[in-house]
Specification:
mainly alpha; 434 Repressor (Amino-terminal Domain); Fic-like fold; 2 domains; 74% helix
């Protein structure tokens, strides 16, 4: 952990005095953290992770590892104790997952009623609703990333091939790429394709098709990322049949953001994968309405999740969005 802190500080060109001032931590303590003679508190870890732009999970794991080693050292019973601790943590995690489901049972039931109501529409009605929802998915996806195309302009670009005056080529390509992504994940959903590295790379390539290709479809140059992504795929396979699909998709989203596997496009691919899982389970796209206030809420929820390390904050948000979007989908049939 000490090298993580020191290297990150030096990469940002900060002196210990400057970091101490920014973090509100005594300079002498910063030096001791970097030499390994003192350990930061959890609150200090959160501050340093943010200021030095170190992945929060990476820093927390390093901090907890050192804390555990300090407590148990090389005691002859250490490994047995760690095994029991791991079993206890897994047991507690199951209890937390059960609590999340039970505490949200009302909205989960409401969502199922809305989903069944939507599925009761005839084929023609569902196709018309699907077209509108796909357009909105494309528009909201690119808008979250700062694209300035309006909904009508997005429709003109993807349906009519029209070039919008005053809009950049990249903005046009983003809309076209997300149209292709929408068709791709819809096809994957219908085929019940499993989540895999191959699909991850294909989708990431599609995000940057014609825009930026150097790092498209490639993880960061970090062997830990390959390991963490493999753990994610294994986790998904283990839980896909025993977790509510909305909770499953929300957790996959958070895991992708925590791993941060690509140089660019992590937020987009997390959104795409989450919605792929929704479509595969006959739900509708779960993306917040666009607009300054909605974007602020979206990023505020993500910040709260990272700060509190509480996944229920984000899951509750996605449940609310999915209910709103299912209601919206049903209302489209009455217009």
């Amino acid at each position: 952990m000490k090298s993580l802190l020191k290297n990150a500080r030096e990469q940002k060109g900060l002196k210990t005095r400057e970091l101490a001032q920014l973090a509100g931590i005594d300079q002498a303590l910063i030096s001791k953290f970097e030499s390994g003679t003192r350990k930061p508190t959890k609150d200090q870890i959160i501050k340093l992770s943010h200021l030095l732009e170190i992945d929060y999970e990476t820093l927390m794991v390093a901090w907890l590892k050192e804390k555990i080693l300090y407590e148990i050292g090389d005691d002859e019973f250490a490994l047995k104790a760690l095994l029991l601790a791991e079993q206890e943590i897994q047991r507690n995690k199951k209890e937390i997952d059960s609590f999340i489901i039970s505490s949200n049972q009302i909205i989960l039931d409401e969502i199922e009623i809305l989903k069944n109501q939507l599925q009761s529409f005839n084929h023609f009605e569902l196709r018309q609703i699907s077209k509108t929802l796909e357009l909105e998915f494309i528009f909201k996806s690119i808008h979250t990333n700062g694209n300035s195309l309006t909904l009508d302009e997005t429709k003109s670009v993807i349906n009519d091939g029209i070039t919008i005056s005053g809009k950049s080529m990249q903005e046009h390509l983003e809309a076209i790429n997300f149209q292709e992504i929408s068709a791709y994940i819809k096809d994957l959903s219908q085929k019940k394709t499993n989540l895999s590295e191959k699909e991850f790379f294909t989708i990431h390539n599609l995000i940057f098709k014609g825009i930026q290709s150097e790092n498209a479809g490639k993880y960061k140059n970090d062997p830990m990322i390959v390991r963490e992504m493999n753990l994610l795929f294994n986790w998904y396979e283990t839980h896909k049949n025993n977790l509510n699909p909305i909770i499953l998709a929300s957790e996959v989203y958070l895991k992708i953001l925590d791993i941060n596997p690509f140089e660019k496009g992590n937020l987009q691919i997390a959104n795409i994968i989450m919605n792929w899982i929704f479509l595969q389970n006959n739900y509708v796209y779960a993306l917040a309405q666009t607009g300054k206030n909605n974007n602020l809420e979206y990023f505020s929820v993500l910040d709260e999740y990272k700060t509190k390390n509480d996944k229920s904050v984000f899951i509750n948000y996605i449940l609310k969005i999915e209910k709103e979007n299912l209601t919206h989908a049903i209302e489209l049939n009455t217009k």
